[in-house]
Amino acid sequence: MYKISTSPHMNSQQTTQTIMRDVIVALTPAMLVSLFMFGIQALIVLATSVASCVFFEYFFARRLKLKNTTSDLSAVVTGVLLALNLPATMPIWMTVIGAFMAIVVAKMAFGGIGKNIFNPALVGRVFLFISFPVQMTTWITPRFMDFFNIDATTAATPLNILKHLGAGEQLTTGYWDLFIGNIGGSMGETSVLAILLGLFWLLKQKIITWHIPVFYLGSFAVCMFLSEIVTGAPRFDVLAHLLSGGLMLGAVFMATDYTTSPMTKKGKIIFAVGCGVLTYIIRVFGSYPEGVSFAILIMNAFVPLIDKYCHQYVYGTGRK
Amino acid sequence: MKTKTFAIGGIHVDKHKISSQSAIQELALPEMVYIPVKQHIGAPAKIVVKVGDRVKVGTLLAEADGVLSASVYASVSGQVMKIEEVNSGQGYLETVITVKREGDEFEESMDLSDEIVREIPDNKEELLKIIRSAGIVGMGGAGFPTPVKTNIPEGKSVDTLIINGIECEPYLTADSRLMEEKAEQIVIGTRILNKILGIQHAIIAIDENKPQAIARLQEITKRYVGVNVQSCKSIYPQGGEKQLINTITGREVPSGKLPLDAHCVVQNVATVYAIYEAVQKRIPLFRRVLTLSGNADLTPSNYLVRIGTPISFILHENQVNMDNVGKVIAGGPMMGQAIAALEAPVTKTTSGITVLSAETADKPETSACIRCGKCVDACPMGLMPLNIRAAVEENDIAILKSLHVQDCILCGSCSYVCPAKIPLLDYCKIGKYELGRQQKAK
């Protein structure tokens, strides 16, 4: 007996799992840089975060007698992203709490993969940031290839310095150090170079389109640039702002999350510009030096609304 | 030549054109042919023979019943054995005329020589009459009666004739072989359509992955002023009528309207070849070229097949290893229909038979939608299949309407690209059906 089924009788090779695998490949340069710069501590945070995310997803599904979906690798991606958003000195138990918030509260409680409104890794990060502000803003100075760099001196991040830069003062960190990641900060956000390598892979594999990263960074840069022109203050240094903090990581890996970003190109652009403007507002007018996480989470909440009003042009309906 | 393409969506599929180098060969004749009286869109043809009648190849079996219908001819010589309603390969009941073959005798009116007849009759009405009586329908798959498509009603005008040689379905190469081997006949067929439509120009659109066909037709069209070849980007569904009109003219067929409303007539190359045979050689539509291909254990081939030949006979002649066959599809793997009963006959619209191995016959397991938007980017009509799916699950007709589900062309691009392997096309079909039913009820 031969099979009958509806067409099409062929499918692409791409699955949710291969997509997540590509995202993990894209995150590899950032992971490697964090290991080289922050040593064994970074490895501990990374391992803890990934293991707890996978465990929480598995355990949650088991308790509620749902299908085990850990093989789609999305929990691994969340784990890596959460770790890269934490300082290398993060205590293990705090990382576990972050993973719990990300997977159980932000993802599984909303119905699992594809149903969450907010980016799970960012929910985890922001929860930790509000709950443990001291640990979340303790940065160690990176030391290349010094794996047991455990008692390095605490360093202020470039964004913190920028925020409080007075007239006539200048940022002492060079653009090159900002670009390669020879600065203090969260594990995965410091090296712009590593993140751009990841972006290249995501674009090459057609996992994401260029719209969100470009419009996010672009709208942010325009806002900063206008401020710089109007005030002339060094704290609005556009390039330094672009290369510092979680902006690159956010624009490339967090704002482009499928589930929590809009569907159409038009929607993606609105979403990305919203992220860019909000990041600017928080960095310049807010009390925190960094605003990427909050900006993306706020825009996540607008995604259903954006999707409701941004439709594709339908063939044959007459372009206006 | 600059390669053209359409504006919205489209996907890259693996082509698998493994039969592209095998020349068209005449298939042996089966002992029995099963000829359905409805192989087209419209009313079934009216049967004019009875059981026991002796017929020759080209004897009228059933006559077009009204304007939207098409005549059906005997494809073998012999005796009419049965006229009965049977279960078609697709699960509907249909009336089928069974002819038992004896020898291979042709009606005398036909000119079966290889000689190319170039002189075209001048009378437009006469040309239309020949095409109508030859039972020609759109052979690309839709089966829309060709005379209806080429007879322009009052108040409408046509300025572009497009000959569709795209063949974007994976595996299928019948059109491609036909263009290589019968290039001049296709151009003459195009000229006949020009005459009927009263326009001077025609564009033969060919997929850029068929350089041999492009070269051959470019060579021939040098001698036929007004007929030009256009290379089109190899992207699915380039051969869709609405997409091809957009590719060639930049226009769009208004939602819910016909190609005529974009001042275009599109005809498939196999149809154009049938028009040539009908008009120039007096041969009614009793045979067609089809591809037998697939990833099962077989010899990829292009056959000239008599209509009504059972698919099982073709598989047998090709010595397909049936042990590892999982699925047999009438047509290509993107839009073709899986056949339950292999005795189902070849019809005027069977452009190919795709045989899939047991390992590739199963539908992949589905998982949750991750809202990646690949279906949205893929849809060549600009629809949002994931939203259509949600509306179908909620049975929300108003939303289905606002999502333009009735504009879906059933190309299957959405299902193909979905990483979660959700059968989005099925939802679109249900949506179309439900919306149509509600609108009819009103």
Indicate the radius of gyration of chain A in whole angstroms.
Answer: 20 Å
Order of SSEs of chain A, N→C? HHHHHHHHHHHHHH
**Biggest sheet record of chain B:** 6 strands, mixed
What's the architecture of the largest domain in chain B in CATH terms? 3-Layer(aba) Sandwich
CATH superfamily of the largest domain in chain B: NADH-ubiquinone oxidoreductase 51kDa subunit
Q: How far apart lie the N and C ends of chain B?
A: 51 Å
Mean pLDDT of chain B: 93
Structural class of chain A: mainly alpha
Number of helices of chain B: 13
**Biggest interface between chains:** A-B, 35 and 64 residues
Q: Provide the gyration radius of chain B in Å.
A: 21 Å
Give the total of beta strands of chain B.
Answer: 17
**Shape, principal axes of CA atoms of chain A:** globular
Task: Give the N-terminus to C-terminus distance of chain A in angstroms.
Answer: 53 Å
Per-chain topology:
The complex is a heterodimer of chains A (320) and B (442).
Chain A: H1 16-38, H2 40-63, H3 74-84, H4 92-107, H5 120-131, H6 133-136, H7 158-163, H8 175-180, H9 192-204, H10 211-231, H11 238-243, H12 247-254, H13 265-285, H14 292-309
Helix pairs in contact in A: 1-2, 1-3, 1-9, 2-3, 2-4, 3-4, 3-5, 4-5, 5-14, 9-12, 10-12, 10-13, 13-14
Chain B: E1 24-26, E2 32-36, E3 46-47, E4 54-55, E5 60-63, E6 72-73, E7 78-87, E8 93-101, H1 124-133, H2 146-150, E9 160-165, H3 174-181, H4 183-197, E10 202-207, H5 211-221, E11 227-232, H6 241-249, E12 264-268, H7 269-281, E13 287-294, E14 301-306, H8 311-317, E15 325-330, E16 337-338, E17 352-357, H9 374-378, H10 385-394, H11 397-402, H12 413-417, H13 424-441
Parallel strand pairs in B: 1-14, 9-10, 9-12, 10-11, 13-17
Antiparallel strand pairs in B: 2-8, 3-5, 4-7, 5-6, 7-8, 13-14, 15-16, 15-17
